[in-house]
Description:
The protein is an alpha/beta fold. Helix content is about 45%, strand content about 10%. The longest helix has about 30 residues, at about 295-325.
Amino acid sequence: MNDIKIISKAADNIRILSAAMVEKANSGHPGGAMGGADFINVLFSEYIEYDPLNPEWENRDRFFLDPGHMSPMLYSTLALTGKFSIDDLKQFRQWGSVTPGHPERDLSRGIENTSGPLGQGHTFAVGAAIAAKFLQHRFGEIMSHKIYTFISDGGVQEEISQGAGRIAGHLGLNNLIMFYDSNGIQLSTETSEVTQEDVAAKYKAWGWRVIEIDGHNIAQIRAALDGAKSEKEKPTLIIGKTIMGKGACKSDGSSMEGTTATHEQPLSAAGACFDSTIKNLGGDPSDPFAIFPETEMLYAKRTSELNTIVARKKVKKSVWAKANLELEVKLTSWFAGELPVIDWGNIEQKADQATRTASSTVLGVLAKGIENMIVSSADLSNSDKTDGFLKCTRSIQKNDFGGKFLQAGVCELTMACLCIGMTLHGGVVTACGTFFVFSDYMKPAVRMAALMEIPIKFIWTHDAFRVGEDGPTHEPVEHEAQIRLMEKLQNHSGQNSMLVLRPADVTETTMAWKMAMENKKTPSALILSRQNINDLPPHANRYKEALEAQKGAYIVCENDRYDVILLASGSEVSTLVDAANILKDKGIKSRIVSVPSEGLFRSQSKEYQESVIPADKKIFGLTAGLSVTLEGLVGNNGKVWGLNSFGFSAPYTVLDEKLGFTAIQVARQIENLLN
Length: 675
């Protein structure tokens, strides 16, 4: 082990760099970074194992930061490993810098996750630990590594920590090591003003091993990490009692440690003296971005150690690969994100089924065809029909990660973040399901997945007021409009941040799954019906015709010299087909357009968009959600019939009648438009 004096000096170096970054930017959170420096320094200089030359090495330990506002601590530490330059640190929070206010996923620089709202980061880590166990079950010790995560008082308070803690303990994720930076200070108050819970007792009740230490004591940090690494049955929580703003002082040398003021503003603005603080920590106020020679030597030594560790592990893998040629090919393929060929055209769907049922059929095919796919459901597998996947595998359990289905329990946000974490780990494909109305709980995770450009698949069923008897609490009227905003929002790669698909019949559901599985650049969402839907009329081969759905919108059927364009997504398309037949008997001719994804349609050429929805035609849009869902497509040359209020409790057929969604009523609305 390294000399404790050198370790402590390197930790002070991290404190100085963190404080200097915030001071120069005149923005940020120095206090927590200064308090957590001892743990992260010991972790990166002595414990965490990664390849200095290949940041995407599949068998690396992973580190997930939960409190993103502590980014100065992470950037400073990674600068010591060579991942960031001093100039990068000086550009903290500035336009175009690689050191934004909260860390954004960048594997080349050692950042595994975007740290957004508190609580999500360590839940990603739990998901990554599940993925690691899943892969270790299939490839053996060649995929044996640890998942480290760092959480703060705020992350512990966020409700998602309950789901993450419960599931990690229940599954016995002994490969998960979490450090809780317990400094008793949050942004506006001391934690004692808002909570008196016994965090250690809580995690012990969930089945965790809990180790309580002085978070600034190097020997205790090492002993805790050694104990956590040797744990065979449980995830480990290391509660480190730390001091907010450790080392901060005023100009007269009096302490500013442990104050709320240092949490979220530069030290000088908090009442401390920046120069005095730097001196107190052993630095030079005229050059606060300097790296001490002792620190440089410490991390150079660790780099050399890591090169030896990685070389030894790669030799073991080489021996393993020669004895397991098929497994080696599979491992490489999985981490490359490659998928086996699925014969989508030969998936047999029963006619006139609910799209959730059609999804179940596809999931059964995927369960058999994609070995590294994991599906999860929030206690609804038999209702959101993800059980089509479950029936072809088994649930993941403690000491048995041979299954491919995660029963998450009633925790939609946790479930979403777990699946994101699995995807961040790499080597697996994930999907998760629940009722569409409960996407309300998931939106913070959906947004983070979109920001990170993670190809997770969201399965949302019971898509409209036709949920029926459950009533307005369970009827997602406004949800499609909300989630389709993600199709209008561009990610940093200049693409639609999400692919949102609401298929119109069983064949379109197959197509929607094809599109989702082939989309490796953004999250995908499938919005599916509870009730049965009549299949759309085929011209010759319905599957080949539904291939046009890959353009986001396409012509389902039309009359020559049509009078009006009828457009919708999901179950409303079949209603338009029935309405069009009524109108045809009255001499009114129609073109029917299915729009499973407006965002994808808007990405097509102007020529294609104009060929499907010409600007000179009357347009009628039908949606079981808010009218605004289709107003962008209908424009000023038509009208949208939607539901602009909460739903009601009644059988869905009654609701169709009462709310004006029968074919006869819709045909009347179209006549009114034309007249």
